[in-house]
Amino acid sequence: MATTRWFFEPGHTGAEFRARHMMVTHVRGALKNVQGSLEADPDAPETARVEATVDATQVYTGQPQRDEHLRSADFFDAEHHPTWTFTGTQVRQLSPTDFLLTGDLTVRGVTRPVTFDVTYLGQWDTPWWEDGRDLGPRRRAGFCATARINRHDFGVSWNDTVDRGGVVVGDMIDVTVDVEAVRES
Q1: Residue among 74, 65, 62, 78 nearest 27 (CA)
Q2: What is the CA radius of gyration of the chain?
Q3: pLDDT tens column, 131-152
Q4: Between vectors from CA 61 to CA 58 and to CA 65, what angle results, nearest 5°?
Q5: CA dihedral over 32, 24, 172, 98, signed as positive or negative
Q6: Distance, CA of 97 to CA of 126 (rounded, Å)
């Protein structure tokens, strides 16, 4: 087969993160404005390339004060670094549906290598509507990618202590990215 090009459908693609809070629970956040592309040859998945951009200014945790704090220089510094990027350059296939995707993640202007565990969820044809007209079926593919990163590696180091020891925010952040990719025609 030949290499095909896909774009991430923004309405059905998003990133989530989970951080330990007060050492007793987790706080979750969502980032919906994820743009990206995938170039892949099904017969040679190790040659795939992935690029993604996340809008860090649109973080949502369900608590407006926390969202503002996350956008501040204490955490994301979204005023100076409004986007995060990921460029995946190495793919290793583990099974027909499981892959390791390694690439460069940039947050707050700091770039570090990160490996995502990726699960391929399948493909299907769906209607494609533009300007109120069905332009025929388009092929879609689904993926779920997870990683655990140390936030300090990216300069996201604000913290405070709590009574009786411990800290407000844990070091390790769990990241999940759900992608619905649409094959370009």
Answers
A1: 62
A2: 18
A3: 999 988 999 999 999 999 998 8
A4: 85
A5: negative
A6: 21
